[in-house]
Amino acid sequence: MNETNITVLFSDVNTMWTLIGAALVFFMQAGFAAVEAGFTRSKNSGNIIMKNLMDFSIGTPLYWFVGFGIMFGTQSAIFGGIDLFTRGDYTAILPEGVDFFAYFIFQTVFCATAATIVSGAMAERTKFSSYCIYSAVISLVIYPVSGHWVWGGGWLSQLGFHDFAGSTAVHMLGGVCALIGAAILGPRIGKYTKDGKPKAIPGHNIPLGALGVFILWFCWFGFNGGSTVSMTNGGAELAGKVFVNTNLAAAVATLATMFITWIRYKKPDVSMTLNGSLAGLVAITAGCDCVNTWAAAVIGLISAFAIVFGVEFVDKVLKVDDPVGAVGVHFCNGFLGTILTGVFASNEWLASCGMTRGHFLGIQCLGAFSVIAWGAVTITITFLIIKKTVGLRVTEEEELSGLDLPEHGLVSAYADFQPIFAHMSAPSKAEKNSGSSEPAVDIDDAVPVVIKTPKTPVASDVKMTKIEIFVRQERFEALKEAMLEIGITGMTVTNVLGCGVQKGKPEYYRGAVQEITLHPRVQVEIVVSKIPVKTVVNAAKKVMYTGHTGDGKIFVYDVENVIKIRTGEEGVSALQDEEQY
User: Fold this and answer.
1) Would residue 132 count as lying in a domain?
2) CA within 20 to 30 Å of 227's CA: 93, 111, 358, 441, which one?
3) Over the stretch 480-496, which tens digit does the pLDDT of each residue have?
4) Which residues have a Cβ under 8 Å from the Cβ of 313 and sit 6 or more positions away?
5) How many CA atoms lie within 13 A of 531 on its CB side?
6) What is d(CA 83, CA 124) in angstroms, rounded to the nearest whole number?
7) Nearest-angstrom CA–CA distance, 502 and 79
8) How confident is the model at residue 431 (pLDDT cuts 50, 70, 90)?
9) What is the domain extent for residue 314?
10) What is the C-alpha separation between 168 and 364, in angstroms, rounded?
11) Domain of residue 497, CATH code
């Protein structure tokens, strides 16, 4: 194989690796959509999916139209340049052995990621039209300008600022936009009490949110590892190091967050721990190529504290309602990761760059605060203009009903799981016959009933009692077995929500007190006549009792009469399972 063929092979390998990274970063949109939908309420799920779809769909043509030129043009150290439809010559900025189109799509998916971060913090109360506008502004101007400073040869990169895969350029920028947007927008209805205390509004589908986190963790290998844009000349070795550091930081952050919430809230918080995984991923992104593995673990540990106390600070002190924790994950840990890169960069890496640690740390701080200032000013102007013109927030009625219906005409994002009677009413006789050649049939003819005189006394002569039992879900099977043992063969079982005089035991969700006044319970209804009521009650108490609040209640009622629909039997006879013919 001659030298030319080797060069072509290397070029193909690097280009292929970059395209794989681009595909993985694109799939992060699915992860963000799942996290946001799972951590919010079901009545807004369709709206959230639509917004995440629009992030990428709006950002792609705008970045092609002018964003790429602003980011990678060479007009000045502040602003790249205007290159409509990306027709210029970018040979000078292309990584070695990477095709232009591969590099262009790789940068495009990063741009879309920055825009989608804002969606979660402003979920459940933002106008869809307004969301499309500010998402466009982020992709068109805000992200490309600061991206030019960091990655496009701008003034920060000239100083030696280091953000390998986007803790600053993507996550911190998106996080500061999310913080300001959520602050200007205001909290969701019912989020805070009159005295300013936060109330938990749990997400409707934590497993969906967890799936989103797993998707994001997987795709982060493309986000960070793909940023090597090379598998040759040491690129493969560097990618391996990046993979290890990325995974280690995320795992340590997840463990640490679990233990922190376990100590603070007395139970390991699922939602916050999932955010902890993302926090570790964001924090390691800036320096995953230049820190040692032990430093990656330390960064993950620090990010766990940042996410827990960051979310609490935003929620309780700043009084900013962030449904998914986007500010804590992306802003707090994006900033933290940028600074910690200066603290933990290896001595070998610093020597290769010709910088002292103090000098490098100073540059990292300057870069972080500069990007924060740029993002804060530009997004504030954007949001205020939108607020004064088309409006930023939906009406109170729309927010309470959920955004799926008023914004998109979607009755429910989970329509197949809704009770059929929620959308249908019983048809009239005329409706049943419309379009049919069959004659109408009266119900008495369609369902023949033979009424027989019961051989046993009617209800007025035999005492019948209804016993209503409210039991913990986990004790229902034991209760059912106990009832069968004493001869109870008929019961009605319903899943319900309720509470007693204690009004429920307070729990924590993402650090906020969740004043649970309605606990899930199973309601069991039994009507007895032959079996003594005391026997039923004692059997139920025996299996339900734990000695703790919430064991349940048993209600006892007199029953006036029972009528079996099929036979017309009344009283005790209607309760029997014996054929009368």
Assistant:
1) yes
2) 358
3) 989 999 988 788 999 88
4) none
5) 20
6) 37
7) 62
8) very low
9) 3-408
10) 10
11) 3.30.70.120
Decide: helix, strand or coil at residue 126: strand
pLDDT tens for residues 249-275?
A: 999 999 999 999 999 999 999 999 999
Q: Which helix (H) or strand (E) holds 495?
A: strand 492-498
Residue with tokens 């600074």: 339
Which DSSP category does 420 fall into?
Answer: G
Which residue, 408, 429, 453, sits at the end of a domain?
A: 408
Would you say residue 366 has pLDDT above 70? yes
Nearest-angstrom CA–CA distance, 367 and 339: 9
What phi, psi does 66 have (nearest 5°)?
-150, -25
Q: Are 529 and 573 within 8 A, CB to CB?
A: no
Give the pair of three-digit tokens for residue 39.
């951590």
Lookup result for tokens 């013109």? 389
pTM (2 decimals)?
0.78
Q: Would you call 23 helix, strand, or coil by DSSP?
A: helix
**Is residue 455 classed as helix, strand or coil in its secondary structure?**
coil
Please name the residue ranges forming H helices in 122-234: 128-137, 143-150, 155-159, 173-185, 206-220
Q: Is residue 292's pLDDT more than 80?
A: yes
Strand partners, 494: 523
Helix, strand counts (H, E) of the chain? 23, 6
Strand partners, 558: 465
Say if residues 508 and 516 touch (Cβ distance below 8 Å): no
For tokens 């997987």, the residue is 218
- Do 53 and 168 lie in one domain? The reply is yes
CATH number of the domain bearing residue 309: 1.10.3430.10
Domain co-membership, 373 together with 484? no
CB 372 within 8 A of CB 315: no
What domain count does the chain have?
A: 2
CA distance linking residue 503 with residue 194, whole number of Å:
20
As a whole number of angstroms, the distance between CA 544 and CA 552 comes to 7
